[in-house]
Every structure is written in C-alpha cells, then in structure tokens.
Amino acid sequence: FWEKSLSYPQFFAPEKNRFGSSRLFIGFPLTENWAFGLLGSYQAYYQAQENGSYFRELYAPEPDENGNPVYIGNTRVELPAGLQNDLFGIGLFLKRKVRLGKKTSLAFNLYGIRESGKGQLEIFPDYSYFFWPCPNCLSVAPGPIIQEMEEKNWKAGLDISFAWSLSDWMDVGIRANFLEFRKQSLSTNSDMINTFVYDPFLGVADGYSGDRYDFGSAVSREGVRVSLTFRPF
Hints:
This protein has one helix at residues 219-222, and strands spanning 2-5, 16-29, 34-59, 71-99, 104-123, 145-165, 170-188, 210-216, 225-230. By secondary structure, the protein is mostly beta strands. Strands 1, 2, 3, 4, 5, 6, 7, 8 and 9 form a nine-stranded antiparallel sheet that branches.
C-alpha cells in the first residue's frame, strides 16, 4: 500500500494518489525449481488523471435590447479528474526459482492476468466562478461530478522476488512487477440520463473512455510487495 499527496491550484481537486493490492499464488511443483499455478489478485486505487476539458461559452456583461445574453465566444476550461476502482483478477503463472545461498533465493514469475471492476470517475469543476447563464447552478453543491466507470485490464509480465527461508515450509521476501504489459479498457454508462437544464460537463467523462496501453516497469505504479510463501508439501 502507498499514497502520495497531490497539489492543484484550485480548492476542489484530487487530494492523493493511493494504491493497495494483494496477490495469491497457488502453485504446483513441476521440478525442484519450476512451478506452475493459478494467480488471483485484488487491488484498490485512486489515481489522478490527465485534466479533462470543455469549451465554455462567453457572454457580454450586458444583455441585448431584448434582454437576451450576448454571445461573444468560447474559452477552453480544464478540469482535474481522478479515477477510483476496486479490481479483482485471475490468471496463470510460471515460476523459476534460483537459489543464492542456503536460506536465500530469487524467483522469476511469468504471469498473465485478467482484471475487472466497476468504479467511478470524479471530475472537479472550478466553483470560483459561475457557469452563466445556468438556472440550476445555485442548486449544485460544491464537489466532484461523479461518473460510473467500468474497467477491464489484461496484464502480462515478469514478477521478480527475493526470499529468505524462515523454515523448511515458509519463506518471507519482497517482490515487484519488474516488467509488465497492460491493456486498460475504460467505459462509461452510456444509458445515464442527464437531468441538468444546462450541463457544461456533458461529454467530458466520455473523453476518458477507450483503451490505454502501458509497457515497462510497474513498480512506480504499484510499488513493492512483501511476500509470504508456504510449502505444505
């Protein structure tokens, strides 16, 4: 588990990036140094996203002779956003163990895993000004705009661990995802009904939908784990 504070110029914005996870490896020995098995995972995170944006209409300070607002142009407004989710996954792994000494060893785990979960995207408007003309603005309580998001991930990579043998049947160690390919797919609830008379955020959340691809070390995103290994047979 780790968390990191964030800094934004506006008051309402994501406060911290957070990540916590656990993985369960159930392996079956093939030889003394090789094993194959099932992998289960759970992770919970909150991660700031790239700022969303939309074009806000600008009006003259005075209405026209009929009392109607006078449109003078648009300005681009950026909105901080954060993604929160809880993901469950299942996959397979192949392990190769390399002994370093009587009580120490390295393990190289090739793995593939499929994760899924339903979370939410938080979009933070700047409440320091009014979206005018906006009949419902005074009924909007300051806070993030919430949009449900569904996330599906495919991951494949190399997990490396260093272990210290405490007994014949238990090891303790540290491990990390040294190299990983990830395909992250995000989608919104397209059936959501918009109830605002005027919604300046319409379409902002949809900009976060789609596929994203990562390749490289996952340590900066997921950190380093503490591991316990049990050998009942």
